[in-house]
Amino acid sequence: MRWAGHFTYFVTVFLMVAGLFIVIARDNLIKKLVGLGLFQTSVYLLYIAPGKLVGGTAPILSDAFTVYSNPLPHVLILTAIVVGVATLALGLALVVRIREAYDSIEEDEILRLDAAGPSSRAEQ
Amino acid sequence: MSLAQHLPALQVVVPLIAAPLTVLLRRRSLAFAIVLAASWTALAIAVLLWLQVGERGTISYAIGSWPAPWGIEYRVDRLSAFVLVLVAGIAAVVLPYSRASIEAEVPPQQQYLFYTMFVLCLTGLLGITITGDAFNIFVFLEIASLSTYVLIALGRDRRALVAAYQYLIMGTIGATFIVIGIGLLYLMTGTLNLADMGRRIGVVQTTRPVLAALAFLTVGISLKLALFPLHQWLPNAYAYAPSAVSAFLAATATKVAVYVLLRFYFSVFGQSQVFEKLPMPEAMLLLALAGMFAASTIAIFQTDLKRLFAYSSVGQIGYIILGLSFGSTDGLIATIVHLFNHGVTKGAIFMLLGGVALVMGGTSLSRVQGLGKRMPLTSFGIVICGLSLIGVPGTAGFITKWYLLLAALQKGQWWLVFLIVLSSLLAAAYVWRFVEAAYFREVRKDIGETVLPWSMAVPAGLLVAATVYFGLDTTFTVGSARQAVALLMGGLR
Fold first, then answer.
1. Interchain CB distance below 8 Å, B135 and A79
2. Which residue has the higher pLDDT, A2 or B423?
3. B467 contacts B344 by C-beta, under 8 angstroms
4. So what's the ipTM on this one?
5. How close is the nearest chain B Cα to the Cα of A77, in Å?
Protein backbone atom coordinates (compact mmCIF):
# COMPACT_ATOMS: atom_id res chain seq x y z
CA MET A 1 0.00 0.00 0.00
CA ARG A 2 2.89 2.28 0.84
CA TRP A 3 4.35 1.74 -2.63
CA ALA A 4 1.01 2.17 -4.31
CA GLY A 5 0.43 5.40 -2.40
CA HIS A 6 3.65 6.77 -3.82
CA PHE A 7 2.72 5.87 -7.39
CA THR A 8 2.51 9.49 -8.58
CA TYR A 9 5.93 10.25 -7.14
CA PHE A 10 7.48 7.39 -9.10
CA VAL A 11 5.91 8.69 -12.31
CA THR A 12 7.08 12.21 -11.44
CA VAL A 13 10.65 11.16 -10.83
CA PHE A 14 10.71 8.98 -13.95
CA LEU A 15 9.50 11.86 -16.13
CA MET A 16 11.93 14.25 -14.45
CA VAL A 17 14.97 12.07 -14.99
CA ALA A 18 13.91 11.08 -18.52
CA GLY A 19 13.47 14.74 -19.45
CA LEU A 20 16.81 15.79 -18.00
CA PHE A 21 18.51 12.85 -19.71
CA ILE A 22 17.16 13.92 -23.12
CA VAL A 23 18.32 17.50 -22.53
CA ILE A 24 21.82 16.34 -21.68
CA ALA A 25 22.27 13.42 -24.06
CA ARG A 26 20.74 14.71 -27.33
CA ASP A 27 22.56 17.02 -29.71
CA ASN A 28 19.49 17.99 -31.72
CA LEU A 29 18.25 21.36 -30.49
CA ILE A 30 14.56 20.48 -30.98
CA LYS A 31 14.92 17.19 -29.11
CA LYS A 32 16.56 19.06 -26.26
CA LEU A 33 13.49 21.29 -26.05
CA VAL A 34 11.23 18.21 -26.03
CA GLY A 35 13.25 16.88 -23.09
CA LEU A 36 12.99 20.25 -21.36
CA GLY A 37 9.21 20.16 -21.84
CA LEU A 38 9.03 16.68 -20.32
CA PHE A 39 11.15 17.81 -17.38
CA GLN A 40 8.87 20.77 -16.72
CA THR A 41 5.75 18.62 -17.06
CA SER A 42 6.96 16.31 -14.31
CA VAL A 43 6.79 19.27 -11.94
CA TYR A 44 3.12 19.84 -12.79
CA LEU A 45 2.43 16.33 -11.56
CA LEU A 46 4.51 16.86 -8.43
CA TYR A 47 2.30 19.81 -7.47
CA ILE A 48 -1.12 18.60 -8.56
CA ALA A 49 -1.18 14.98 -7.39
CA PRO A 50 -0.88 15.70 -3.63
CA GLY A 51 -3.68 18.28 -3.89
CA LYS A 52 -6.23 15.52 -4.45
CA LEU A 53 -7.50 13.67 -1.38
CA VAL A 54 -9.27 10.34 -1.82
CA GLY A 55 -12.97 11.05 -1.24
CA GLY A 56 -12.36 14.79 -1.17
CA THR A 57 -14.74 17.14 -2.96
CA ALA A 58 -14.37 20.51 -4.60
CA PRO A 59 -13.65 23.15 -1.94
CA ILE A 60 -17.18 24.51 -1.58
CA LEU A 61 -18.26 24.70 2.05
CA SER A 62 -21.20 22.47 2.85
CA ASP A 63 -22.39 20.52 5.87
CA ALA A 64 -22.57 17.35 3.82
CA PHE A 65 -18.81 17.11 3.31
CA THR A 66 -15.82 17.15 5.62
CA VAL A 67 -12.95 16.34 3.25
CA TYR A 68 -11.94 18.84 0.59
CA SER A 69 -9.28 18.73 -2.12
CA ASN A 70 -6.78 21.56 -2.27
CA PRO A 71 -7.40 23.80 -5.30
CA LEU A 72 -4.32 25.97 -4.87
CA PRO A 73 -1.82 23.66 -6.66
CA HIS A 74 -4.00 23.73 -9.77
CA VAL A 75 -3.89 27.51 -9.86
CA LEU A 76 -0.14 27.54 -9.35
CA ILE A 77 0.40 25.01 -12.10
CA LEU A 78 -1.83 26.92 -14.47
CA THR A 79 0.76 29.69 -14.16
CA ALA A 80 3.62 27.23 -14.52
CA ILE A 81 2.05 25.80 -17.69
CA VAL A 82 1.87 29.29 -19.20
CA VAL A 83 5.52 29.81 -18.32
CA GLY A 84 6.37 26.44 -19.87
CA VAL A 85 4.54 27.30 -23.10
CA ALA A 86 6.33 30.66 -23.29
CA THR A 87 9.70 29.02 -22.72
CA LEU A 88 9.04 26.39 -25.39
CA ALA A 89 7.86 29.03 -27.87
CA LEU A 90 10.92 31.19 -27.28
CA GLY A 91 13.19 28.16 -27.48
CA LEU A 92 11.69 27.10 -30.82
CA ALA A 93 11.94 30.67 -32.14
CA LEU A 94 15.62 30.68 -31.24
CA VAL A 95 16.09 27.34 -33.00
CA VAL A 96 14.51 28.80 -36.16
CA ARG A 97 16.94 31.73 -36.03
CA ILE A 98 19.86 29.41 -35.33
CA ARG A 99 18.94 27.32 -38.39
CA GLU A 100 18.81 30.49 -40.52
CA ALA A 101 22.24 31.54 -39.29
CA TYR A 102 24.02 28.17 -39.25
CA ASP A 103 21.89 26.00 -41.56
CA SER A 104 21.96 23.29 -38.88
CA ILE A 105 20.20 22.39 -35.66
CA GLU A 106 22.75 19.85 -34.44
CA GLU A 107 24.74 21.19 -31.54
CA ASP A 108 28.00 19.45 -32.48
CA GLU A 109 27.88 20.86 -36.03
CA ILE A 110 27.17 24.36 -34.72
CA LEU A 111 30.08 24.17 -32.31
CA ARG A 112 32.27 22.95 -35.18
CA LEU A 113 31.16 25.88 -37.37
CA ASP A 114 31.93 28.31 -34.53
CA ALA A 115 35.34 26.78 -33.99
CA ALA A 116 36.06 26.95 -37.74
CA GLY A 117 35.82 30.71 -37.78
CA PRO A 118 33.74 33.56 -36.46
CA SER A 119 31.29 35.15 -38.81
CA SER A 120 28.79 37.76 -37.83
CA ARG A 121 25.24 37.89 -39.09
CA ALA A 122 25.83 41.46 -40.19
CA GLU A 123 28.43 40.30 -42.73
CA GLN A 124 26.27 37.68 -44.37
CA MET B 1 -5.35 55.86 0.90
CA SER B 2 -2.38 57.85 -0.21
CA LEU B 3 -0.07 57.03 -3.06
CA ALA B 4 2.85 56.50 -0.69
CA GLN B 5 1.13 53.42 0.74
CA HIS B 6 1.12 51.77 -2.67
CA LEU B 7 4.79 52.26 -3.45
CA PRO B 8 5.61 48.52 -3.15
CA ALA B 9 3.03 47.65 -5.82
CA LEU B 10 3.99 50.60 -8.02
CA GLN B 11 7.62 49.49 -7.91
CA VAL B 12 6.67 46.52 -10.09
CA VAL B 13 3.57 47.85 -11.83
CA VAL B 14 5.17 50.97 -13.37
CA PRO B 15 7.77 49.09 -15.45
CA LEU B 16 5.27 46.29 -16.13
CA ILE B 17 2.81 48.74 -17.74
CA ALA B 18 5.57 50.43 -19.72
CA ALA B 19 6.35 47.14 -21.49
CA PRO B 20 3.11 46.66 -23.50
CA LEU B 21 2.96 50.42 -24.21
CA THR B 22 6.25 50.26 -26.06
CA VAL B 23 4.99 47.35 -28.17
CA LEU B 24 1.78 49.19 -29.05
CA LEU B 25 3.53 52.42 -30.01
CA ARG B 26 6.27 50.70 -32.02
CA ARG B 27 8.26 53.94 -32.42
CA ARG B 28 11.74 53.54 -31.01
CA SER B 29 12.09 57.15 -29.78
CA LEU B 30 8.71 56.95 -28.04
CA ALA B 31 9.59 53.54 -26.63
CA PHE B 32 12.86 54.94 -25.35
CA ALA B 33 11.10 57.90 -23.69
CA ILE B 34 8.53 55.67 -21.99
CA VAL B 35 11.06 53.16 -20.74
CA LEU B 36 13.38 55.92 -19.54
CA ALA B 37 10.52 57.51 -17.60
CA ALA B 38 9.51 54.13 -16.18
CA SER B 39 13.01 53.22 -15.04
CA TRP B 40 13.68 56.61 -13.46
CA THR B 41 10.33 56.39 -11.68
CA ALA B 42 11.31 52.90 -10.51
CA LEU B 43 14.56 54.30 -9.12
CA ALA B 44 12.70 57.11 -7.33
CA ILE B 45 10.29 54.56 -5.82
CA ALA B 46 13.16 52.29 -4.77
CA VAL B 47 14.92 55.18 -3.02
CA LEU B 48 11.67 56.24 -1.32
CA LEU B 49 11.10 52.66 -0.14
CA TRP B 50 14.66 52.50 1.15
CA LEU B 51 14.09 55.68 3.15
CA GLN B 52 10.74 54.44 4.48
CA VAL B 53 12.24 51.12 5.55
CA GLY B 54 15.09 52.96 7.27
CA GLU B 55 12.60 55.00 9.26
CA ARG B 56 9.86 52.53 10.04
CA GLY B 57 11.24 49.05 9.50
CA THR B 58 9.85 46.29 7.29
CA ILE B 59 6.93 47.22 5.04
CA SER B 60 4.34 44.57 4.28
CA TYR B 61 1.94 45.18 1.40
CA ALA B 62 -1.01 42.90 0.74
CA ILE B 63 -1.71 42.61 -3.00
CA GLY B 64 -5.44 43.05 -3.64
CA SER B 65 -5.90 43.59 0.11
CA TRP B 66 -5.77 39.84 0.73
CA PRO B 67 -3.75 39.57 3.92
CA ALA B 68 -0.72 37.28 4.11
CA PRO B 69 -0.32 34.30 4.32
CA TRP B 70 -3.37 33.76 2.07
CA GLY B 71 -2.75 36.52 -0.40
CA ILE B 72 0.50 37.49 -2.08
CA GLU B 73 2.56 39.70 0.15
CA TYR B 74 5.10 42.24 -1.04
CA ARG B 75 7.65 42.61 1.66
CA VAL B 76 10.28 45.33 1.71
CA ASP B 77 12.88 44.96 4.43
CA ARG B 78 16.37 46.40 4.72
CA LEU B 79 17.92 43.75 2.49
CA SER B 80 15.36 43.89 -0.30
CA ALA B 81 15.27 47.71 -0.24
CA PHE B 82 19.03 47.72 -0.71
CA VAL B 83 18.87 45.32 -3.68
CA LEU B 84 15.95 47.30 -5.17
CA VAL B 85 18.09 50.44 -5.14
CA LEU B 86 20.92 48.56 -6.87
CA VAL B 87 18.71 47.06 -9.61
CA ALA B 88 16.68 50.22 -10.30
CA GLY B 89 19.80 52.38 -10.09
CA ILE B 90 21.73 50.33 -12.63
CA ALA B 91 18.71 50.27 -14.96
CA ALA B 92 18.35 54.06 -14.67
CA VAL B 93 22.01 54.53 -15.61
CA VAL B 94 22.18 51.89 -18.36
CA LEU B 95 19.07 53.11 -20.21
CA PRO B 96 20.31 56.55 -21.34
CA TYR B 97 23.50 54.76 -22.36
CA SER B 98 21.66 52.06 -24.28
CA ARG B 99 20.14 54.37 -26.89
CA ALA B 100 23.33 55.13 -28.83
CA SER B 101 24.75 51.70 -28.09
CA ILE B 102 21.67 49.87 -29.37
CA GLU B 103 21.45 52.06 -32.46
CA ALA B 104 24.89 50.80 -33.43
CA GLU B 105 24.28 47.14 -32.60
CA VAL B 106 20.63 46.25 -33.26
CA PRO B 107 18.68 46.55 -36.56
CA PRO B 108 16.34 49.61 -36.48
CA GLN B 109 13.10 47.59 -36.76
CA GLN B 110 14.00 45.59 -33.64
CA GLN B 111 15.07 48.47 -31.46
CA TYR B 112 11.69 49.16 -29.84
CA LEU B 113 11.58 45.50 -28.84
CA PHE B 114 14.88 45.94 -27.06
CA TYR B 115 13.25 48.53 -24.81
CA THR B 116 10.24 46.27 -24.22
CA MET B 117 12.45 43.38 -23.17
CA PHE B 118 14.69 45.61 -21.10
CA VAL B 119 11.81 46.98 -19.06
CA LEU B 120 10.26 43.50 -18.69
CA CYS B 121 13.57 42.21 -17.40
CA LEU B 122 13.65 45.12 -14.96
CA THR B 123 10.10 44.24 -13.85
CA GLY B 124 11.11 40.65 -13.23
CA LEU B 125 14.22 41.51 -11.24
CA LEU B 126 12.39 44.09 -9.11
CA GLY B 127 9.54 41.62 -8.60
CA ILE B 128 11.86 38.83 -7.40
CA THR B 129 13.36 41.22 -4.90
CA ILE B 130 10.18 42.71 -3.53
CA THR B 131 7.88 39.72 -3.29
CA GLY B 132 7.43 37.75 -0.08
CA ASP B 133 5.75 34.81 -1.80
CA ALA B 134 7.71 31.75 -2.89
CA PHE B 135 5.75 30.95 -6.04
CA ASN B 136 5.72 34.61 -7.00
CA ILE B 137 9.52 34.50 -6.96
CA PHE B 138 9.39 31.78 -9.62
CA VAL B 139 6.96 33.75 -11.79
CA PHE B 140 9.07 36.90 -11.67
CA LEU B 141 12.20 34.84 -12.17
CA GLU B 142 10.76 33.51 -15.42
CA ILE B 143 9.68 37.01 -16.53
CA ALA B 144 13.23 38.20 -15.98
CA SER B 145 14.80 35.10 -17.54
CA LEU B 146 12.64 34.93 -20.68
CA SER B 147 13.28 38.59 -21.46
CA THR B 148 16.98 38.05 -20.78
CA TYR B 149 17.13 35.27 -23.38
CA VAL B 150 15.62 37.61 -25.98
CA LEU B 151 17.97 40.45 -25.01
CA ILE B 152 21.00 38.20 -25.45
CA ALA B 153 19.73 36.90 -28.80
CA LEU B 154 19.63 40.52 -30.07
CA GLY B 155 23.44 40.44 -30.24
CA ARG B 156 25.01 41.12 -33.63
CA ASP B 157 27.11 37.97 -33.72
CA ARG B 158 25.31 34.76 -34.69
CA ARG B 159 26.90 33.09 -31.69
CA ALA B 160 24.58 35.27 -29.59
CA LEU B 161 21.72 33.00 -30.73
CA VAL B 162 23.48 29.87 -29.54
CA ALA B 163 24.45 31.60 -26.29
CA ALA B 164 20.81 32.60 -25.74
CA TYR B 165 19.65 29.04 -26.50
CA GLN B 166 22.17 27.52 -24.11
CA TYR B 167 21.18 29.99 -21.42
CA LEU B 168 17.52 29.15 -22.06
CA ILE B 169 18.19 25.45 -21.47
CA MET B 170 20.35 25.98 -18.38
CA GLY B 171 18.16 28.76 -17.00
CA THR B 172 14.97 26.72 -17.41
CA ILE B 173 16.54 23.73 -15.68
CA GLY B 174 17.58 26.07 -12.87
CA ALA B 175 14.14 27.65 -12.61
CA THR B 176 12.46 24.21 -12.66
CA PHE B 177 14.73 23.04 -9.85
CA ILE B 178 13.64 26.11 -7.89
CA VAL B 179 9.95 25.26 -8.50
CA ILE B 180 10.54 21.68 -7.36
CA GLY B 181 12.14 23.02 -4.19
CA ILE B 182 9.29 25.44 -3.60
CA GLY B 183 6.76 22.67 -4.30
CA LEU B 184 8.32 20.33 -1.74
CA LEU B 185 8.36 23.13 0.83
CA TYR B 186 4.73 23.89 0.07
CA LEU B 187 3.78 20.24 0.50
CA MET B 188 5.50 20.11 3.89
CA THR B 189 4.45 23.47 5.32
CA GLY B 190 1.19 24.18 3.50
CA THR B 191 2.08 27.78 2.83
CA LEU B 192 3.77 29.81 0.10
CA ASN B 193 4.49 32.93 2.12
CA LEU B 194 8.21 32.99 2.89
CA ALA B 195 7.86 34.40 6.40
CA ASP B 196 5.07 31.98 7.24
CA MET B 197 7.12 29.12 5.78
CA GLY B 198 10.04 30.12 7.99
CA ARG B 199 7.78 29.91 11.06
CA ARG B 200 6.24 26.54 10.18
CA ILE B 201 9.36 24.76 8.98
CA GLY B 202 10.69 24.14 12.50
CA VAL B 203 8.48 21.09 13.05
CA VAL B 204 9.43 19.35 9.83
CA GLN B 205 12.94 20.66 9.41
CA THR B 206 14.80 17.37 9.35
CA THR B 207 12.35 15.43 7.18
CA ARG B 208 13.60 14.17 3.85
CA PRO B 209 11.40 16.32 1.57
CA VAL B 210 12.59 19.50 3.30
CA LEU B 211 16.22 18.50 2.89
CA ALA B 212 15.51 17.61 -0.75
CA ALA B 213 13.89 21.03 -1.15
CA LEU B 214 17.02 22.66 0.24
CA ALA B 215 19.15 20.72 -2.24
CA PHE B 216 16.94 21.55 -5.23
CA LEU B 217 16.78 25.23 -4.28
CA THR B 218 20.53 25.44 -3.77
CA VAL B 219 21.35 23.86 -7.13
CA GLY B 220 18.64 25.79 -8.98
CA ILE B 221 19.62 29.17 -7.57
CA SER B 222 23.31 28.39 -8.01
CA LEU B 223 22.64 27.84 -11.72
CA LYS B 224 21.04 31.27 -11.86
CA LEU B 225 23.84 33.01 -9.99
CA ALA B 226 26.55 31.17 -11.98
CA LEU B 227 28.30 29.53 -9.05
CA PHE B 228 31.48 27.96 -10.35
CA PRO B 229 30.70 24.56 -11.88
CA LEU B 230 27.29 25.83 -13.03
CA HIS B 231 28.58 28.96 -14.78
CA GLN B 232 28.83 27.56 -18.34
CA TRP B 233 26.07 29.77 -19.72
CA LEU B 234 27.55 33.04 -18.49
CA PRO B 235 30.71 33.79 -20.52
CA ASN B 236 29.07 33.38 -23.94
CA ALA B 237 25.91 35.17 -22.87
CA TYR B 238 27.83 38.23 -21.65
CA ALA B 239 30.31 38.16 -24.54
CA TYR B 240 27.83 38.10 -27.44
CA ALA B 241 24.91 40.10 -26.01
CA PRO B 242 24.61 43.78 -27.02
CA SER B 243 26.86 45.94 -24.80
CA ALA B 244 24.00 47.60 -22.92
CA VAL B 245 22.56 44.17 -22.13
CA SER B 246 25.90 42.83 -20.88
CA ALA B 247 26.24 45.86 -18.62
CA PHE B 248 22.74 45.50 -17.20
CA LEU B 249 22.89 41.73 -16.72
CA ALA B 250 26.39 41.66 -15.27
CA ALA B 251 25.37 44.25 -12.72
CA THR B 252 21.97 42.90 -11.70
CA ALA B 253 20.87 39.41 -12.80
CA THR B 254 23.32 37.27 -10.84
CA LYS B 255 23.09 39.67 -7.88
CA VAL B 256 19.33 39.19 -7.62
CA ALA B 257 19.90 35.42 -7.67
CA VAL B 258 22.27 35.84 -4.71
CA TYR B 259 19.51 37.76 -2.97
CA VAL B 260 17.08 34.84 -3.55
CA LEU B 261 19.64 32.45 -2.08
CA LEU B 262 20.00 34.63 1.04
CA ARG B 263 16.21 34.88 1.31
CA PHE B 264 15.72 31.11 1.26
CA TYR B 265 18.68 30.30 3.49
CA PHE B 266 17.94 32.83 6.19
CA SER B 267 14.26 33.72 5.99
CA VAL B 268 12.97 30.21 5.30
CA PHE B 269 15.52 27.68 6.49
CA GLY B 270 16.75 29.84 9.31
CA GLN B 271 20.19 30.06 10.72
CA SER B 272 20.33 26.82 12.69
CA GLN B 273 19.58 24.22 10.09
CA VAL B 274 21.53 25.38 7.08
CA PHE B 275 24.66 26.39 8.87
CA GLU B 276 24.88 23.96 11.76
CA LYS B 277 23.32 20.61 10.93
CA LEU B 278 24.56 20.22 7.37
CA PRO B 279 28.04 20.64 5.87
CA MET B 280 26.74 23.59 3.81
CA PRO B 281 29.50 26.06 4.82
CA GLU B 282 32.18 23.58 3.80
CA ALA B 283 30.52 22.89 0.44
CA MET B 284 30.04 26.62 -0.21
CA LEU B 285 33.61 27.38 0.80
CA LEU B 286 34.95 24.75 -1.60
CA LEU B 287 32.84 25.94 -4.55
CA ALA B 288 33.65 29.57 -3.81
CA LEU B 289 37.38 28.88 -3.77
CA ALA B 290 37.13 26.78 -6.93
CA GLY B 291 35.33 29.68 -8.63
CA MET B 292 37.78 32.29 -7.39
CA PHE B 293 40.78 30.38 -8.69
CA ALA B 294 39.57 28.43 -11.73
CA ALA B 295 37.47 31.21 -13.28
CA SER B 296 40.09 33.89 -12.64
CA THR B 297 42.74 31.65 -14.19
CA ILE B 298 40.58 31.04 -17.26
CA ALA B 299 40.04 34.81 -17.49
CA ILE B 300 43.79 35.37 -17.82
CA PHE B 301 43.88 33.31 -21.02
CA GLN B 302 40.97 35.00 -22.82
CA THR B 303 41.64 37.01 -25.96
CA ASP B 304 38.40 38.98 -25.90
CA LEU B 305 37.87 41.58 -23.18
CA LYS B 306 34.14 40.91 -22.82
CA ARG B 307 34.82 37.20 -22.25
CA LEU B 308 37.73 38.03 -19.96
CA PHE B 309 35.55 40.15 -17.70
CA ALA B 310 32.69 37.63 -17.93
CA TYR B 311 34.98 34.95 -16.47
CA SER B 312 36.11 37.50 -13.93
CA SER B 313 32.42 37.82 -12.93
CA VAL B 314 32.32 34.09 -12.17
CA GLY B 315 35.41 34.55 -10.00
CA GLN B 316 33.85 37.50 -8.21
CA ILE B 317 30.69 35.47 -7.53
CA GLY B 318 33.12 33.21 -5.66
CA TYR B 319 33.87 36.05 -3.21
CA ILE B 320 30.15 36.64 -2.68
CA ILE B 321 29.57 32.97 -1.84
CA LEU B 322 32.76 32.86 0.25
CA GLY B 323 31.32 35.58 2.49
CA LEU B 324 28.13 33.53 2.82
CA SER B 325 30.06 30.39 3.76
CA PHE B 326 31.50 32.02 6.90
CA GLY B 327 28.02 32.37 8.36
CA SER B 328 29.30 35.25 10.47
CA THR B 329 28.24 38.89 10.55
CA ASP B 330 31.35 40.16 8.79
CA GLY B 331 31.16 37.43 6.19
CA LEU B 332 27.56 38.29 5.35
CA ILE B 333 28.38 42.00 5.25
CA ALA B 334 31.06 41.14 2.69
CA THR B 335 28.49 39.17 0.67
CA ILE B 336 25.90 41.92 0.63
CA VAL B 337 28.38 44.74 0.08
CA HIS B 338 30.10 42.85 -2.73
CA LEU B 339 26.74 42.22 -4.35
CA PHE B 340 26.45 45.99 -4.68
CA ASN B 341 30.10 46.89 -5.28
CA HIS B 342 30.67 44.23 -7.89
CA GLY B 343 27.41 45.18 -9.59
CA VAL B 344 28.54 48.79 -9.91
CA THR B 345 32.09 47.86 -10.97
CA LYS B 346 31.10 45.29 -13.59
CA GLY B 347 28.32 47.53 -14.88
CA ALA B 348 30.90 50.27 -15.39
CA ILE B 349 33.37 47.93 -17.13
CA PHE B 350 30.82 46.52 -19.57
CA MET B 351 29.48 50.00 -20.36
CA LEU B 352 33.00 51.23 -21.10
CA LEU B 353 33.62 48.12 -23.22
CA GLY B 354 30.48 48.97 -25.19
CA GLY B 355 32.08 52.32 -26.02
CA VAL B 356 35.31 50.54 -26.94
CA ALA B 357 33.41 48.17 -29.24
CA LEU B 358 31.78 51.14 -30.96
CA VAL B 359 35.00 53.12 -31.52
CA MET B 360 37.55 50.36 -32.03
CA GLY B 361 35.23 47.94 -33.84
CA GLY B 362 35.53 45.13 -31.31
CA THR B 363 36.77 44.21 -27.86
CA SER B 364 39.41 41.60 -28.66
CA LEU B 365 42.80 42.30 -27.12
CA SER B 366 44.31 42.77 -30.58
CA ARG B 367 41.79 45.48 -31.47
CA VAL B 368 42.11 47.50 -28.27
CA GLN B 369 45.84 48.00 -28.74
CA GLY B 370 46.79 51.57 -27.95
CA LEU B 371 43.45 52.30 -26.30
CA GLY B 372 45.28 54.48 -23.80
CA LYS B 373 46.09 56.89 -26.63
CA ARG B 374 42.91 56.59 -28.68
CA MET B 375 40.43 56.75 -25.74
CA PRO B 376 42.41 57.90 -22.70
CA LEU B 377 39.43 58.46 -20.39
CA THR B 378 37.67 55.18 -21.23
CA SER B 379 40.90 53.30 -20.82
CA PHE B 380 41.57 55.01 -17.48
CA GLY B 381 38.03 54.12 -16.36
CA ILE B 382 38.57 50.44 -17.16
CA VAL B 383 41.83 50.50 -15.20
CA ILE B 384 40.09 52.04 -12.16
CA CYS B 385 37.39 49.35 -12.30
CA GLY B 386 40.12 46.74 -12.78
CA LEU B 387 41.74 47.99 -9.58
CA SER B 388 38.37 47.58 -7.87
CA LEU B 389 38.22 43.96 -9.09
CA ILE B 390 41.68 43.39 -7.62
CA GLY B 391 40.65 45.09 -4.38
CA VAL B 392 43.03 48.03 -4.24
CA PRO B 393 42.32 50.48 -1.38
CA GLY B 394 40.32 53.50 -2.52
CA THR B 395 38.03 51.43 -4.75
CA ALA B 396 34.78 49.63 -3.96
CA GLY B 397 36.38 46.18 -4.28
CA PHE B 398 38.68 46.88 -1.33
CA ILE B 399 35.77 47.19 1.10
CA THR B 400 34.64 43.65 0.27
CA LYS B 401 38.10 42.17 0.55
CA TRP B 402 38.49 43.94 3.90
CA TYR B 403 35.37 42.36 5.35
CA LEU B 404 36.24 38.97 3.86
CA LEU B 405 39.67 39.14 5.51
CA LEU B 406 38.08 40.23 8.79
CA ALA B 407 35.69 37.28 8.66
CA ALA B 408 38.52 34.85 7.86
CA LEU B 409 40.65 36.25 10.70
CA GLN B 410 37.79 35.95 13.18
CA LYS B 411 37.65 32.26 12.39
CA GLY B 412 41.42 32.06 12.71
CA GLN B 413 41.71 30.70 9.19
CA TRP B 414 45.08 32.13 8.17
CA TRP B 415 45.36 29.92 5.10
CA LEU B 416 42.15 31.47 3.83
CA VAL B 417 43.59 34.97 4.22
CA PHE B 418 46.51 33.80 2.12
CA LEU B 419 44.18 32.34 -0.54
CA ILE B 420 42.09 35.54 -0.76
CA VAL B 421 45.22 37.59 -1.36
CA LEU B 422 46.52 35.02 -3.85
CA SER B 423 43.28 35.13 -5.85
CA SER B 424 43.56 38.93 -5.96
CA LEU B 425 46.89 38.44 -7.70
CA LEU B 426 45.10 36.42 -10.39
CA ALA B 427 42.75 39.39 -10.85
CA ALA B 428 45.80 41.61 -11.14
CA ALA B 429 47.10 39.28 -13.87
CA TYR B 430 43.99 39.53 -16.06
CA VAL B 431 43.67 43.26 -15.55
CA TRP B 432 47.32 43.54 -16.57
CA ARG B 433 46.48 41.84 -19.88
CA PHE B 434 44.27 44.83 -20.63
CA VAL B 435 46.81 47.39 -19.38
CA GLU B 436 49.53 45.87 -21.52
CA ALA B 437 47.42 46.01 -24.68
CA ALA B 438 46.04 49.48 -23.98
CA TYR B 439 49.18 51.30 -22.88
CA PHE B 440 52.18 49.48 -24.32
CA ARG B 441 51.05 48.86 -27.89
CA GLU B 442 50.50 51.14 -30.86
CA VAL B 443 47.03 51.87 -32.22
CA ARG B 444 46.08 49.67 -35.16
CA LYS B 445 45.94 51.36 -38.57
CA ASP B 446 42.40 50.21 -39.43
CA ILE B 447 40.64 51.96 -36.54
CA GLY B 448 37.99 54.45 -37.73
CA GLU B 449 37.36 57.99 -36.57
CA THR B 450 34.17 57.27 -34.63
CA VAL B 451 33.69 59.47 -31.60
CA LEU B 452 32.13 58.11 -28.41
CA PRO B 453 28.71 59.80 -27.97
CA TRP B 454 28.17 61.78 -24.76
CA SER B 455 25.06 59.77 -23.95
CA MET B 456 27.32 56.72 -23.58
CA ALA B 457 30.31 58.37 -21.96
CA VAL B 458 28.43 60.18 -19.16
CA PRO B 459 26.49 57.18 -17.69
CA ALA B 460 29.60 55.00 -17.87
CA GLY B 461 31.65 57.73 -16.18
CA LEU B 462 28.99 57.99 -13.50
CA LEU B 463 29.38 54.32 -12.61
CA VAL B 464 33.18 54.59 -12.60
CA ALA B 465 32.83 57.52 -10.20
CA ALA B 466 30.49 55.38 -8.09
CA THR B 467 33.14 52.63 -8.00
CA VAL B 468 35.56 55.07 -6.42
CA TYR B 469 32.96 56.77 -4.24
CA PHE B 470 31.75 53.54 -2.63
CA GLY B 471 35.37 52.67 -1.92
CA LEU B 472 35.81 55.86 0.09
CA ASP B 473 32.42 56.43 1.69
CA THR B 474 30.80 53.24 2.92
CA THR B 475 27.93 54.72 4.93
CA PHE B 476 25.34 53.61 2.39
CA THR B 477 26.71 50.20 1.44
CA VAL B 478 28.14 48.87 4.69
CA GLY B 479 25.49 50.67 6.75
CA SER B 480 22.65 49.05 4.78
CA ALA B 481 24.42 45.69 4.76
CA ARG B 482 24.96 45.78 8.52
CA GLN B 483 21.25 46.41 9.14
CA ALA B 484 20.30 43.73 6.62
CA VAL B 485 22.59 41.21 8.30
CA ALA B 486 21.15 42.03 11.72
CA LEU B 487 17.74 41.33 10.21
CA LEU B 488 18.81 38.05 8.60
CA MET B 489 20.69 36.78 11.65
CA GLY B 490 17.82 37.58 13.98
CA GLY B 491 15.31 35.77 11.79
CA LEU B 492 12.43 37.65 10.24
CA ARG B 493 11.00 40.63 12.00
1. yes
2. B423
3. yes
4. 0.91
5. 10
